[in-house]
Amino acid sequence: MTRGDEALEAAGWYEGRDVGDRALSAVLGSVALAGPAADATAWAVFPAAERALRTFHGLRLPPVGPGRDEAPTGCVIDPLEARHARPSLLRLAETTGSRMFPLGRTDADALLAVDEEGRLFSVGHGEQWQLGDTVRQGLTALTEGRAPHRMAARRWSWTVSSAVDGNPLVNAVRTALVAVYVLHHRQMFSARGLRLTVTPLRGIGPVALDRTVRLPGGRLEESATPLVTAMEALIEAAEVTTEGAELKVAVSAPPKTVGPPASVSCAVRTGHLAREPAMVELSLSAGAGASVGRVRAAVRACSQDLARHARRPSA
Asked: Which InterPro entries does this UniProt record tie to the protein (predicted)?
């Protein structure tokens, strides 16, 4: 048994604890006192929130020990302590793509919330944290001083030697199609098009071209030629020169994608490395919500796949 579990038991928790009506009263009190938001919605009570409150409501947990990774923090489990936290928890819900319900407050005055998957989160000092995959795990981590997982946007980038025939656009499109495959294979999303951006690197002019070209049907490995042809036609029609310009081909989530996957994207840039015109930069970006749960694992797998592609010798 960990010291965090001992703290839980000392505070009155035990396996099968169910405070029943007291938890229901706390839920109803939180909903009533918080009142509806500007969009006329009230706190939504979902099964994971009800289970957490029936199990842990009323507990006051002290910090225990010197702290494993950082200073331990105590907390109180009472949604009324976080009843005025709607704006912060709505932003957290938007980040994670999962509804939140207030659970309590830490001794450091950070908010505690549980989401629909039963995970414990904390919001404080402008930061969002996941404390545990379950409320019990999160509470023991908090009291023992185990480092939480900070929810933050991330970006990875690799330089890819992908010379095909000296055409930077061909190199960029072929690399972008690898990203399309990886994002689909890792069940992130299925892209529907590639976004082409041409930006002059000299002068003060704005982006010269910014258009999305739909992916053709059929096999991805056969898509490069028609995509390049369509993009070259756009460049010609716009009377844009690619000499001394940066070419960027981006892969983004299709419209109506919701939750953390919507924040994930890949981009391929070329033409910005004057000394090595055959090189392209491949990058993967993910928002803060993609740093937890299933999406976090999928993003990590995507980054590993793309890194392997970047290390692969060019044909």
From this structure: SUKH-3
Q: Is the pLDDT of residue 38 over 60?
A: no
Residue 110 CA to residue 89 CA, distance in Å, equals 12
pLDDT at 12: 92
Which of 187, 205, 198, 212 shows the shortest CA–CA distance to 242? 198
Domain borders along the chain are 3-150, 154-311
> Burial, 202: exposed, middle or buried (Cβ in 10 Å; 0-12, 13-18, 19+)?
exposed
Is 41 a residue whose pLDDT tops 60?
no
Q: Which of 85-99, 162-176, 195-209 has the highest mean pLDDT?
A: 85-99
Q: pLDDT tens digits for 191-238?
A: 999 999 998 876 555 788 999 999 998 888 899 999 999 999 999 999
CA–CA separation, 60 and 62 (whole Å): 7
Q: What pTM was estimated for this model as a whole?
A: 0.82
Structure confidence at residue 2 (pLDDT): 82
Secondary structure (DSSP) of the chain: --HHHHHHHHTT--TT---THHHHHHHHHHHHHH---TTS--PPP-HHHHHHHHHHTT-EEPP-SS-SSS----EEE-GGGGTT-HHHHHHHHHHHTS-EEEEEEETTS-EEEEETT--EEEEETTEEEEEESSHHHHHHHHHHTPPPEE---EEEEEEEE--SSS-HHHHHHHHHHHHHHHHHHTTS----EEEEEEEESSSS---SEEEEEEPPSS-GGGSHHHHHHHHHHHHHHTT---TTEEEEEEEEPPTT--SGGGG-EEEEEES--TT-TTEEEEEEEE-GGGGSHHHHHHHHHHHHHHHHHHHSPP-
